[in-house]
Design a protein that fits this description.
The protein has 700 residues and is an alpha/beta fold. It has three domains: 76 residues, no CATH class; 246 residues, 3-Layer(aba) Sandwich (Rossmann fold); 279 residues, Glycogen Phosphorylase B (Rossmann fold, 3-Layer(aba) Sandwich), CATH 3.40.50.2000. Helix content is 45%, strand content 14%. Strands 1, 2, 5, 6, 7, 8, 9, 10, 13 and 16 form a ten-stranded mixed beta sheet that branches. A six-stranded parallel beta sheet has the order 19-18-17-20-21-22, with helices on both faces. A two-stranded antiparallel sheet has the order 3-4. The longest helix has 28 residues. The chain is globular, with a radius of gyration of 25 Å.
Length: 700
């Protein structure tokens, strides 16, 4: 329960809001969000949409008023009825849940335990599993000092600000053991002993169990194991992944949860397979039989398009931690080591991805192109005499999270009916997009664009009050024009994503943005990894251009990028830009979110866009795997598309002021992308191709 000043402060009539606040179900149900806004709109804003904190700061008299407000009670009853009905639906028939392991989960900004796209995908997956009534349980870590925001110095250099996470101030509940005490697990092989506490986050029907070693009684250095996400300290990184995998499996065992399938989202949780082996050995199976059973019931999703991006640990760490674990549980240490060795470089260390590949019979990449790349990268990885097989299941996005709810979802309700909510992956349902009048879709889009620019102005105003210099405030987007063609680029800033490709020819760019009749403006947002110096230099480069008066305030860099800002961006810009260096975009999902809102994609032909691009639903360039002269060629293609096609199409208006040609592309983006690149389609594929075969003991 919530730590409220007085347990009776909320009247019994509306006390269901306490349960609702602790279940992230509300984050993708518009009526539930309206309910929390109606509680106290100012508190909603000040707590950054965190109902757990809201219920603590709202004055008691307000609850009494609401308990006697017929309009509020009608909305409350409607929401609670929807919530109860959704959670009481029968589950799909599986012998046990899918245990979904991931190093990060980006469910909502009110639970900041994620860093980027991997976590957002994991959060979307849990939400979709809840919508589908697919039995699933998530396993991850709490990073009590791990969520990083970046503020921009006057010279444009991003500086990290750590935000400490107090579990009691977020939608987290301590899991209790049979005596009512907090559930604490002893993590094997650590000396001195390390304990992890287990918390529960509810994501609709799906429980998400999260471990932390930041608990009293652990040595100070051990409390830091789970404090920071993706630490660069190699031994701490090893310990973190050991806690995630081994500790996560032990948490499920203590909770009496027997998963039918393990799904490892990337290689970070691969140590869970050790515990799976141990459990099968404890049932009396031989080591070889345990290996086969572990393989058969494990699904592994690989995301990286580069072998150097995988976790590889020196054998000295394995000797220190894995060896005593194997000795204690009767596992053959040398045989386990062999499972993690790269046959091309066996002395390099223990490779977590290779270990997961060998112990997972059901393996997938995250787009067709990435499937080709992954098969090439991992060619030669075998288990016994069997070549590891990698198929492709392209990522998707959770439409009810990412399609803007106030206007865009209502527009879809009006012209598509309830079908799009019930069958979001059915292309026939989305044919109804053609019925939306151009002027109506355009009006909705313009409203979302104005909302985006107002949000950026509010953020800049706050930074001005905090003492940010005037030129920085201008660079944050205060001079943006809602009538100008607006490009959006928002993602992690790192070299291979080439955020500076748009800046390749500054004179050409200047002509685009300062054209008095057909101006272009660009909104950049994103963070660099704290250790990625080149990524930080790219942010500085963009920011300094945004400060340059020669670009007329039409380049903006927005700091403190998070899920909340992302939702404004994917619905509010006019064109979504993606410029990765092929074939390094394994999938990418931000363009899917934008397209589903009617924001066309302008992208290199890499990742999912190779499958999604039809020639009418956006624009494409590049795609070839070569490096010499690559940036110049791609920049030329990008500028040419803007100058010759996109800018003229956007500014070609009918007598009604609507750019009908551009709106046609918007409609095609929604119609073709939403059903094919949603998590409903993605999870149906996982179920059919991977989960059910794993349950039935069949190969891929």
């Amino acid at each position: 329960m919530l730590n409220l000043p007085n347990e009776n402060v909320i009247p019994e009539r509306i006390r269901g809001i306490v349960e609702l606040a602790q279940n992230l179900w509300w984050t993708w149900h518009p009526s539930a969000r309206r309910l929390f806004r109606a509680l106290d709109y100012q508190a909603w804003l000040e707590t950054t949409h965190n109902p757990v904190l809201m219920l603590r700061v709202i004055r008691p008299q307000r609850f009494q008023e609401l308990a006697n407000d017929p309009e509020f009670l009608a909305l409350y009853d409607q929401v609670m009825a929807e919530y109860r009905a959704d959670l009481s639906r029968p589950s799909l028939d599986l012998p046990g849940p899918v245990a979904y392991f991931c190093a990060e989960f980006g469910v909502h900004v009110s639970l900041p335990i994620y860093a980027g796209g991997l976590g957002i995908l994991a959060g979307d997956t849990l939400k979709e599993a809840s919508d589908m009534a697919l039995p699933m349980v998530g396993i991850g870590l709490i990073y009590t000092q791990g969520y990083v925001t970046q503020r921009i110095r006057e010279d444009g250099w991003p500086e990290e600000e750590q935000k400490a996470l107090d579990p009691s101030a977020h939608p987290l509940e301590p899991v209790r053991d049979s005596s009512g005490s907090p559930l604490l697990l002893e993590i094997p092989a650590f000396r001195p002993s390390v304990r992890a506490q287990v918390f529960l986050a509810r994501v609709g029907r799906v429980p998400l169990y999260l471990l932390t070693t930041d608990v009293e009684g652990n040595a100070p250095q051990d409390r830091t194991i789970s404090q920071r996400l993706y630490t660069t300290d190699l031994e701490q990184r090893f310990k973190q992944e050991w806690v995630l995998g081994v500790g996560g499996m032990r948490a499920l065992e203590r909770l009496g949860i027997r998963p039918a399938v393990l799904h490892l989202n990337e290689g970070h949780p691969a140590f869970a397979l050790l515990e799976h082996l141990r459990q099968f050995l404890a049932q009396g199976l031989s080591f070889e039989e345990a290996l086969l059973r572990t393989r058969q019931t494990t699904v592994f999703t690989t995301h990286t398009p580069l072998p150097v991006a995988t976790d590889v640990f020196p054998f000295a760490l394995l000797d220190r931690y894995l060896a005593p674990y194997c000795q204690e549980h009767g596992l053959p240490y040398e045989a386990i080591l062999e499972l993690g060795k790269d046959p091309k470089n066996p002395e390099a260390g223990f490779n977590m991805t290779i270990f997961a590949l060998r112990l997972s019979r059901h393996v997938n990449a995250v787009s067709r192109r990435h499937g080709e790349v992954a098969r090439r990268i991992w060619a030669g990885i075998r288990f016994r005499d069997e070549e590891v097989r990698i198929e492709a299941i392209t990522n998707g996005v959770h439409l009810f999270t990412w399609i803007e709810p106030l206007r865009v979802q209502r527009l879809l309700d009006k012209y598509l009916g309830k079908d799009w909510r019930e069958r979001p992956d059915d292309p026939e349902v989305w044919q109804g997009v053609e019925k939306i009048p151009d002027e109506e879709l355009w009006a909705v889009h313009q409203e979302r664009k104005e909302a985006l620019i107002a949000e950026l102005a509010a953020r800049a105003r706050r930074r001005w009050r905090e003492g940010a210099p005037a030129k920085s405030v201008l660079a944050f987007g205060t001079l943006l024009d809602p009538n100008a063609l607006t490009l959006g680029f928002a993602r992690r800033f790192t070299a291979y994503k080439r955020p500076d490709l748009l800046l390749y020819n500054l004179e050409r760019l200047k002509k685009l943005v300062t054209d008095p009749f057909r101006p272009v403006q660009i909104i950049f947002a994103g963070k660099a990894h704290p250790a990625d110096i080149e990524g930080k230099r790219l942010i500085q480069k963009v920011f300094q251009l945004a400060c340059d008066p020669a670009f007329a305030g039409r380049i903006a860099f927005v700091e403190e990028y998070d899920q909340h800002l992302a939702r404004f961006l994917v619905a509010g810009v006019d064109v979504w830009v993606n410029t990765p260096l092929p074939p390094l975009e394994a999938s990418g999902t931000s363009g899917m979110k934008a397209s589903a809102n009617g924001v066309p994609h302008l992208s290199v032909l890499d990742g999912w866009w190779l499958e999604g691009y039809t020639g009418e639903n956006g624009w494409a360039f590049g795609g070839e795997e070569h490096s010499e002269g690559r940036n110049q060629a791609d920049a030329e293609a990008l500028y040419r598309l803007l100058e010759d096609k996109i800018v003229p199409l956007y500014y070609e208006r009918g007598p009604d002021g609507v750019p009908h040609g551009f709106v046609r592309v918007m409609k095609e983006a929604i119609r073709t992308v939403a059903p094919r690149f949603c998590t409903r389609r993605m999870l149906r594929e996982y179920l059919k191709k991977l989960y059910i075969p794993a349950v039935r003991g069949k190969g891929p």
